[in-house]
Design brief:
With about 140 residues, the protein is an all-alpha fold. The protein has one domain. About 65% of the residues lie in helices and about 5% in strands. The protein has helices at about 1-25, 45-70, 80-95, 115-140, and strands at about 35, 40. A two-stranded antiparallel sheet has the order 1-2. The protein is globular.
């Protein structure tokens, strides 16, 4: 369980750091990272929103680690650990399923770079990490 939580936490930290780079203005090809229709982004994330996503991802990493090392968690936080893990797991599974239009396994718009990355990378990561968080949460002793 501990190795699984470490791998999951490191994955979330890496993604959070990428979001921080993006928020600080480092240029990435945005067409690979957000949905695009007719060559135009569906939305343009701002630096503040991107930074908030990074903070949330760091939180996901913290919950992942805490689920693997519950004896290291302060006693006042233990009652919230299992519900937090379940909530994050469900959020990630919902993201994997998607909005049935732009993102997720069941998206309708499938002809962009983002759609390819989403199908082969983003949605599978959400599915695996969401399922893993649910597994860790349900097996919390």
């Amino acid at each position: 369980m501990q190795i699984i939580s470490i791998i999951l936490a490191v994955s979330f930290v890496i993604i959070a750091v990428l979001h921080i780079f993006w928020a600080l203005g480092f240029k990435f090809d945005i067409r690979n990272m957000i949905p695009v229709v007719n060559g135009e982004p569906v939305f343009t994330p701002g630096p503040v929103g991107t930074f908030i996503v990074a903070i949330v991802l760091f939180g996901f990493a913290g919950v992942s680690l805490a689920l693997g090392y519950p004896t290291k968690v302060p006693i006042n936080y233990l009652p919230f650990l299992k519900p937090a893990g379940i909530a994050i797991g469900v959020i990630l599974l919902v993201r994997a399923v998607g909005d049935f239009k732009y993102a997720g396994f069941f998206k309708r718009i499938k002809d962009s770079n983002f759609a390819k990355y989403d199908y082969w990378l983003y949605s599978p990561f959400c599915l695996i990490s969401g399922g893993t968080l649910l597994y860790l949460s349900m097996n919390l002793t």
